[in-house]
Amino acid sequence: AQTVTQSQPEMSVQEAETVTLSCTYDTSENNYYLFWYKQPPSRQMILVIRQEAYKQQNATENRFSVNFQKAAKSFSLKISDSQLGDTAMYFCAFMKRFGGSEKLVFGKGMKLTVNP
Amino acid sequence: DAGVTQSPTHLIKTRGQQVTLRCSPKSGHDTVSWYQQALGQGPQFIFQYYEEEERQRGNFPDRFSGHQFPNYSSELNVNALLLGDSALYLCASSHTGSLPAQFFGPGTRLTVL
Questions:
Q1: A95/B100 Cβ within 8 A
Q2: Is the pLDDT at B1 greater than 80, yes or no?
Protein backbone atom coordinates (compact mmCIF):
# COMPACT_ATOMS: atom_id res chain seq x y z
CA ALA A 1 0.00 0.00 0.00
CA GLN A 2 1.11 3.51 -0.70
CA THR A 3 1.82 5.93 2.14
CA VAL A 4 2.41 9.67 2.16
CA THR A 5 4.30 11.41 4.97
CA GLN A 6 4.35 15.10 5.78
CA SER A 7 6.70 15.41 8.72
CA GLN A 8 6.27 19.14 9.40
CA PRO A 9 2.89 19.71 11.05
CA GLU A 10 3.13 23.48 11.00
CA MET A 11 5.17 26.31 9.46
CA SER A 12 5.01 30.08 9.31
CA VAL A 13 6.52 32.54 6.85
CA GLN A 14 6.56 36.28 6.34
CA GLU A 15 4.64 37.78 3.46
CA ALA A 16 6.72 37.96 0.24
CA GLU A 17 9.19 35.33 1.43
CA THR A 18 9.71 31.85 -0.01
CA VAL A 19 8.76 28.68 1.84
CA THR A 20 9.24 24.99 1.07
CA LEU A 21 6.88 22.25 2.26
CA SER A 22 8.22 18.72 2.34
CA CYS A 23 6.59 15.40 1.48
CA THR A 24 7.86 11.86 1.13
CA TYR A 25 5.98 8.84 -0.12
CA ASP A 26 6.41 5.11 -0.32
CA THR A 27 5.39 3.02 -3.30
CA SER A 28 6.62 0.12 -5.40
CA GLU A 29 4.87 1.51 -8.46
CA ASN A 30 6.70 3.18 -11.32
CA ASN A 31 3.85 5.11 -12.92
CA TYR A 32 1.91 7.44 -10.67
CA TYR A 33 0.98 11.04 -10.05
CA LEU A 34 1.66 13.37 -7.16
CA PHE A 35 -0.38 16.37 -6.11
CA TRP A 36 -0.39 19.24 -3.70
CA TYR A 37 -3.78 20.41 -2.48
CA LYS A 38 -4.54 23.49 -0.41
CA GLN A 39 -7.41 23.65 2.11
CA PRO A 40 -8.11 27.16 3.43
CA PRO A 41 -10.22 27.71 6.54
CA SER A 42 -13.23 27.77 4.22
CA ARG A 43 -12.40 24.00 3.95
CA GLN A 44 -12.73 23.62 0.16
CA MET A 45 -9.84 21.52 -1.11
CA ILE A 46 -8.11 23.25 -4.02
CA LEU A 47 -5.71 21.58 -6.45
CA VAL A 48 -2.42 23.50 -6.46
CA ILE A 49 -0.14 21.47 -8.69
CA ARG A 50 0.28 18.03 -10.27
CA GLN A 51 3.42 16.09 -11.17
CA GLU A 52 3.49 13.06 -13.46
CA ALA A 53 6.10 10.56 -12.29
CA TYR A 54 7.21 9.80 -15.84
CA LYS A 55 8.22 13.42 -16.36
CA GLN A 56 11.65 14.47 -15.16
CA GLN A 57 10.81 18.15 -15.47
CA ASN A 58 9.46 19.68 -12.28
CA ALA A 59 5.94 21.13 -12.52
CA THR A 60 5.36 24.84 -12.01
CA GLU A 61 2.16 26.88 -11.64
CA ASN A 62 2.80 30.60 -11.25
CA ARG A 63 4.30 31.07 -7.74
CA PHE A 64 4.15 27.35 -6.98
CA SER A 65 6.78 24.85 -8.05
CA VAL A 66 7.81 21.37 -7.00
CA ASN A 67 11.07 19.54 -6.49
CA PHE A 68 10.36 15.96 -7.53
CA GLN A 69 13.07 13.45 -6.64
CA LYS A 70 11.78 10.08 -7.85
CA ALA A 71 14.63 7.95 -6.57
CA ALA A 72 14.40 9.52 -3.13
CA LYS A 73 10.58 9.43 -3.24
CA SER A 74 10.47 13.06 -2.29
CA PHE A 75 8.04 15.72 -3.51
CA SER A 76 8.40 19.19 -2.02
CA LEU A 77 6.37 22.31 -2.78
CA LYS A 78 7.98 25.72 -3.04
CA ILE A 79 5.83 28.81 -2.66
CA SER A 80 7.50 31.99 -3.84
CA ASP A 81 6.45 35.52 -2.89
CA SER A 82 4.10 34.22 -0.18
CA GLN A 83 0.77 35.98 0.13
CA LEU A 84 -1.69 36.19 3.01
CA GLY A 85 -4.13 34.13 0.95
CA ASP A 86 -1.67 31.24 0.97
CA THR A 87 -2.52 30.63 4.64
CA ALA A 88 -4.08 27.16 4.64
CA MET A 89 -3.58 23.47 5.30
CA TYR A 90 -1.48 21.87 2.57
CA PHE A 91 -1.85 18.22 1.69
CA CYS A 92 0.46 16.09 -0.38
CA ALA A 93 -1.30 13.27 -2.25
CA PHE A 94 -0.38 10.21 -4.31
CA MET A 95 -2.38 8.53 -7.05
CA LYS A 96 -1.76 5.38 -8.99
CA ARG A 97 -4.09 4.75 -11.87
CA PHE A 98 -5.31 1.17 -11.69
CA GLY A 99 -7.89 -0.11 -14.12
CA GLY A 100 -9.15 3.41 -14.64
CA SER A 101 -9.62 4.03 -10.94
CA GLU A 102 -8.15 7.21 -9.49
CA LYS A 103 -7.80 6.92 -5.73
CA LEU A 104 -5.97 9.71 -3.90
CA VAL A 105 -3.87 8.82 -0.86
CA PHE A 106 -3.26 11.89 1.30
CA GLY A 107 -0.72 12.83 3.90
CA LYS A 108 -1.82 14.27 7.24
CA GLY A 109 -1.29 17.81 6.07
CA MET A 110 0.74 20.81 7.15
CA LYS A 111 -0.60 24.10 8.43
CA LEU A 112 1.03 27.11 6.75
CA THR A 113 0.57 30.58 8.18
CA VAL A 114 1.67 33.64 6.21
CA ASN A 115 2.27 36.62 8.48
CA PRO A 116 1.97 40.24 7.36
CA ASP B 1 -19.41 27.09 -14.88
CA ALA B 2 -20.47 25.61 -11.53
CA GLY B 3 -17.89 23.61 -9.71
CA VAL B 4 -18.59 20.61 -7.52
CA THR B 5 -21.55 21.19 -5.22
CA GLN B 6 -22.53 19.28 -2.10
CA SER B 7 -25.58 19.30 0.15
CA PRO B 8 -26.29 19.79 2.91
CA THR B 9 -23.52 21.98 4.33
CA HIS B 10 -23.97 20.77 7.88
CA LEU B 11 -25.86 17.89 9.40
CA ILE B 12 -26.44 16.73 12.96
CA LYS B 13 -27.62 13.18 13.62
CA THR B 14 -27.80 10.82 16.57
CA ARG B 15 -26.21 7.41 16.91
CA GLY B 16 -28.01 4.67 15.02
CA GLN B 17 -29.61 7.00 12.49
CA GLN B 18 -29.06 6.97 8.76
CA VAL B 19 -27.83 9.86 6.61
CA THR B 20 -27.69 10.69 2.91
CA LEU B 21 -25.22 13.19 1.47
CA ARG B 22 -25.42 14.50 -2.07
CA CYS B 23 -22.93 15.64 -4.67
CA SER B 24 -23.16 17.19 -8.14
CA PRO B 25 -19.96 16.96 -10.19
CA LYS B 26 -18.31 19.70 -12.16
CA SER B 27 -19.72 20.11 -15.65
CA GLY B 28 -18.11 17.63 -18.06
CA HIS B 29 -16.98 15.24 -15.32
CA ASP B 30 -18.23 11.66 -15.20
CA THR B 31 -16.50 10.23 -12.11
CA VAL B 32 -17.28 10.93 -8.47
CA SER B 33 -15.15 10.00 -5.47
CA TRP B 34 -16.03 10.32 -1.80
CA TYR B 35 -13.59 10.98 1.04
CA GLN B 36 -13.93 11.21 4.82
CA GLN B 37 -11.80 13.80 6.60
CA ALA B 38 -11.60 13.51 10.37
CA LEU B 39 -10.55 16.58 12.32
CA GLY B 40 -6.84 17.28 11.92
CA GLN B 41 -6.33 14.48 9.39
CA GLY B 42 -5.99 14.10 5.66
CA PRO B 43 -8.96 12.81 3.65
CA GLN B 44 -9.48 9.05 3.49
CA PHE B 45 -10.87 7.46 0.33
CA ILE B 46 -14.29 5.86 0.75
CA PHE B 47 -15.24 4.84 -2.80
CA GLN B 48 -15.45 5.97 -6.40
CA TYR B 49 -18.30 5.80 -8.91
CA TYR B 50 -18.11 5.72 -12.68
CA GLU B 51 -20.89 4.81 -15.13
CA GLU B 52 -23.20 4.25 -12.16
CA GLU B 53 -20.98 1.48 -10.79
CA GLU B 54 -18.71 1.42 -7.75
CA ARG B 55 -15.27 1.21 -9.33
CA GLN B 56 -13.08 1.06 -6.25
CA ARG B 57 -13.65 1.00 -2.51
CA GLY B 58 -11.47 2.02 0.40
CA ASN B 59 -11.28 0.42 3.82
CA PHE B 60 -14.75 1.38 5.02
CA PRO B 61 -17.50 -0.93 6.35
CA ASP B 62 -20.62 -1.85 4.42
CA ARG B 63 -22.55 0.74 6.43
CA PHE B 64 -21.15 3.15 3.86
CA SER B 65 -22.85 2.82 0.51
CA GLY B 66 -23.32 5.00 -2.50
CA HIS B 67 -25.03 5.54 -5.77
CA GLN B 68 -24.39 7.39 -8.99
CA PHE B 69 -27.23 8.62 -11.17
CA PRO B 70 -27.37 8.88 -14.99
CA ASN B 71 -26.62 12.63 -14.74
CA TYR B 72 -23.37 11.70 -12.87
CA SER B 73 -24.52 13.12 -9.54
CA SER B 74 -23.94 10.89 -6.54
CA GLU B 75 -25.15 10.08 -3.05
CA LEU B 76 -23.31 8.75 -0.04
CA ASN B 77 -25.39 6.83 2.49
CA VAL B 78 -24.25 5.91 5.97
CA ASN B 79 -26.38 3.55 8.08
CA ALA B 80 -26.29 2.89 11.83
CA LEU B 81 -24.28 6.02 12.55
CA LEU B 82 -21.50 5.86 15.12
CA LEU B 83 -19.88 8.72 17.02
CA GLY B 84 -16.72 8.01 15.02
CA ASP B 85 -18.52 8.84 11.77
CA SER B 86 -18.41 12.53 12.72
CA ALA B 87 -16.25 14.12 10.03
CA LEU B 88 -16.14 16.33 6.96
CA TYR B 89 -17.31 14.35 3.93
CA LEU B 90 -15.77 15.51 0.68
CA CYS B 91 -16.92 14.74 -2.82
CA ALA B 92 -14.52 15.05 -5.73
CA SER B 93 -15.22 14.83 -9.44
CA SER B 94 -12.99 14.08 -12.39
CA HIS B 95 -13.11 13.02 -16.02
CA THR B 96 -11.98 9.47 -16.74
CA GLY B 97 -9.60 9.40 -19.67
CA SER B 98 -8.07 12.80 -19.04
CA LEU B 99 -4.90 13.46 -17.07
CA PRO B 100 -5.97 12.87 -13.47
CA ALA B 101 -7.21 15.87 -11.54
CA GLN B 102 -9.87 15.61 -8.88
CA PHE B 103 -11.82 18.74 -8.05
CA PHE B 104 -13.41 18.90 -4.63
CA GLY B 105 -16.66 20.28 -3.34
CA PRO B 106 -16.96 22.31 -0.13
CA GLY B 107 -17.89 19.26 1.90
CA THR B 108 -20.63 18.27 4.32
CA ARG B 109 -19.85 18.50 8.01
CA LEU B 110 -21.56 15.57 9.77
CA THR B 111 -21.85 15.56 13.55
CA VAL B 112 -23.09 12.42 15.27
CA LEU B 113 -24.30 12.88 18.85
A1: yes
A2: no
Measured between CA atoms, how close is B14 to chain A, in angstroms? 24
What are the DSSP calls for B13-69, one per residue?
A: E-TT--EEEEEEPPTT--EEEEEEE-TTS--EEEEEEETTEEEEE-S--TTEEEEE-
Contact B42 A107 (CB under 8 A): yes
CA angle at residue A22 from A95 to A60, to 5 degrees?
70
Q: Provide, for chain A, the percentages of residues in helix, strand and coil under a 3-state DSSP scheme, each rounded to the nearest 5.
A: 5, 55, 40
pLDDT at A97 over 90: no
pLDDT tens-digit readout, A51-70: 999 998 999 999 999 999 99
Tell me which residues of chain B, numbers 58 to 77, contact chain A at a CB-CB cutoff of 8 Å.
58
Question: Which amino acid is it at B14?
Answer: T
A contacts of B48 (beta carbons < 8 Å): 101-103
